[in-house]
UniProtKB/TrEMBL annotation:
The gene is Sgca. The keyword Transmembrane helix applies. It comes from the Eukaryota. Residues 31-147 form the Sarcoglycan alpha/epsilon second domain. Coiled coil: none annotated. One of its GO terms (cellular component) is sarcoglycan complex. It holds the Pfam family Sarcoglycan_2_C. Signal peptide: none annotated. This is SGCA protein. Keywords: Membrane, Transmembrane, Transmembrane helix. The keyword Mitochondrion does not apply. The chain crosses the membrane at residues 183-205. InterPro entries: Sarcoglycan_alpha/epsilon, Sarcoglycan_C.
Amino acid sequence: LQVLAYNRHTYETVAQQLVITVIPAPGGEPPYQGEFLVGNRNVEELLPAATREIFLQATAGVWEREDLHVINVTSALDRGGRVPLPIEGRKEGVYVKVGSRGTFSPCLASAASPESRFHCSLGQQPLASCYDTFAPHFTIRWCNLSLLQVWPSPTVPGPTWGSGVLEEGGDFQPPTEVTPQDLLPGFLVTLLVPLAVAVLLCLLLGHLMCCRREGV
């Protein structure tokens, strides 16, 4: 990633190159993932490691797991959210995806159940069987909670490379010859059909020009 900056007064430019290496997690992708919508934060407020650690501690209270880690942080504006009005300290909202090796807690399962979705469609609060440990630092919109179970994809073995040398005694066998095909019918259709159409058009045009004149 190359970052360019310039001075507006002197037009002096400075370039700095950042090398970012992305490696897969040692244990692979966590099979259980939950995505929370934080309504009272902007995306840059959840990027610092200290804030993410506080969020993970609050998530551990409702997930009942300790092996949690943040997978992704996305602004709600990138998901079709509206830009908030610059009044009353409103925030844009942040989607935070958290992963774990353990299954979802009964609290999260009840919050994402069909009964909770029905309550949300009526404008009511979803069902929750535990205390909201996110308050007062984070305001979670529970109607936007999504739980996902990711199954590991089977690994496809790569090709096996040989030495590139033909084994002793093995001769190269070329492919067999293709049986000859009769191309005469196709040739006649391709040639005679346009010719017949051209003759008919010429006869029709000649009839209109020669036999349809005034006085004939």
